[in-house]
Amino acid sequence: MKLYSSPRSPFVRKVVVAIHELGLADQIELVPTVVAMDQPNAGMLAKNPLGKIPVLELYDGTAIYDSAVIIDYLDRKVGCRLIPAAGDARDWVLVNHALANGLMDILVLWRNERDKPSEQQSTGWIANFGRKTEAVLAALEKQTPELEHKPFGLAHIAIAVVLAYLDFRFEALNWREPCPKLAAWHAKAAQRPSMLASQITA
Amino acid sequence: MKLYSSPRSPFVRKVVVAIHELGLADQIELVPTVVAMDQPNAGMLAKNPLGKIPVLELYDGTAIYDSAVIIDYLDRKVGCRLIPAAGDARDWVLVNHALANGLMDILVLWRNERDKPSEQQSTGWIANFGRKTEAVLAALEKQTPELEHKPFGLAHIAIAVVLAYLDFRFEALNWREPCPKLAAWHAKAAQRPSMLASQITA
Fold first, then answer.
1. ipTM of this predicted complex?
2. Are residues A94 and A166 in the same domain?
3. Which tens digits make up the pLDDT trace of B22-75?
4. Is the Cβ pair B37, A132 closer than 8 Å?
5. CB-CB: which of A49, A86, A124 is closest to B139?
């Protein structure tokens, strides 16, 4: 199988970490792919009309996306190790994945906005991105005990990846300062083989 | 249960259609809620730190989000009627939901961008939103036979809702012109009681 990917996308990294956690790294080839908000990639539009990565291409050519659907697909192949099949455990994982994934969305939009020529930037949007990011970090800090207690799965992956993305693109936010427990959890999570194997490269 | 909602959000409407399809309308109270890209809603940030709707609040106060997670939750309660539990059928539904949901994301961003003061608008982004929208519509037109053939589920809901959203916010695109088969399918889907019960109001 092929994974259309970029070493800088947090959505891609989430999938790559999942691939390593599931022991599938030798079955999936990473295909470097460039996409941007203002530059369509015609090759990717043919596979995923949204023009986004990651896309998983199966042996028969079927394209699977987005990142959550790819992980759902791979996890079911291996036996629901990252996403519990039912119950409160499933709800917790899916809601916390949505929280971390939503923060990725915010950060990518924020970065796109701040990289525009200054006269095109919306200060209202940027202020709102900042307040939402603070709110998400406060919520994650509060539930660090849950993160430590529950089996490492889809939510853990998304949270570990989005925190690393904050380090990569939003270093000045200094997220560890208001979040000491989360920072301690992340320091351990960042040492997992799956996280080490998928480090962001500039 | 309470659903924090707005009659104009396509993400909310997706959930409301699902609630009707699952026969759960009498168990869920819709709570009108306003959120915007540049105006945080403090009450919503407390329930969902991303500050987005829809959010489903369970009887015990647990907040479930985003829209796909809410539908996953409700569908499992009732017995996997909208999202097949496994196999190719599940992959098809989840990928096509991701496609329609991704188009909602694009359209909401596009609308936010075009509603900015003209000197703040990025013409590159707007052009790219247009190309992606065309690509998604072409892909949907191509698979209208699948839509007609498969049981009405999560993908159908998302596609019916995003097409109605195009009518609501992007009438000038005239999406039916290049998509006659999709338009015929949509005309029928729009007559389902779930779609009629959740019509967009300005």
1. 0.96
2. yes
3. 999 999 999 999 887 777 788 889 999 999 999 999 999 999 999 999 999 999
4. no
5. A49
Interface contact B139, partner A, CB < 8 A:
yes
Contact (CB<8Å) A37/B125: yes
* Per-residue pLDDT tens digits for A67-120: 999 999 999 999 999 999 999 999 999 999 999 999 999 999 999 889 888 888
Residue B70 lies in a domain: yes
Asked if B116 is an interface residue toward chain A (Cβ–Cβ < 8 A), one would say yes
- Is position B176 within any domain? yes
Cα-based angle A161, A163, A168 (whole degrees, multiple of 5) = 90
Q: Is B124 on the interface with A (CB under 8 A)?
A: yes
Q: Do residues A56 and A73 touch, judged by C-beta distance below 8 A?
A: yes
Of B68, B73, B125, which is closest to A38 when you measure between CB atoms? B125
Say yes or no: A171 contacts chain B, CB-CB below 8 A: no
B175/B182 Cα distance (integer angstroms): 9
Task: Say whether both A95 and A183 belong to one domain.
Answer: yes
What's the domain count of chain B?
Answer: 2
A-chain CB neighbours of B66 within 8 Å are: 98, 102
Span A116-145, pLDDT tens digits: 888 888 888 899 999 999 999 999 999 999
CA contacts within 13 A on the Cβ side of A20: 16
B34 touches chain A (CB under 8 A): no
Mean pLDDT of all residues in chain A?
A: 95
Report which of B85, B23, B13, B24 is spatially closest to residue B53, judged by C-alpha positions: B13
Q: Closest Cα to residue B130, out of A71, A78, A45?
A: A45
The pTM score is 0.96
Q: What is the pLDDT of residue A133?
A: 97
Is the CB of residue B47 less than 8 Å away from at least one CB of chain A? no
| Structural domain containing residue B183 | 87-193
| HSE-up (13 A, CA, CB side) for residue B165 | 25
Of residues B85 and B122, more confidence is placed in B85
